[in-house]
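Re: the request from the purification team.
They wanted to know what the chain is likely to look like in 3D before they choose a buffer screen. I agreed to run a prediction and write the result into the notebook, where they can find it.
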Amino acid sequence: MMKSILAAAALTLALSVPALAAEMAKCDEATMMKVNEAIKADTKPEMKKEVDAAAEHMKMAEMAMKGSKMDECSMHIGKAMDQMMMQQ
């Protein structure tokens, strides 16, 4: 029974990892420019909190990109896009 549980857990993990990778935002100049433009374009007062949070994530993404930490960069871009409710 324990082997069955471990096998099921391993299978679930193996199937979920590619899905998570597919959802990560691409860490490149074009994506960063697109998200930064969306942040600058959103001037609605009711979105100020989200815009500020997204801008902070983009700063962290840029720092991660400069440090060649591409997974971290992608994570921060994804979080910025989530804050801005953008489609990935």
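For the purification team: The CA atoms of residues 53 and 83 lie 7 Å apart.
Please add any questions underneath this entry.
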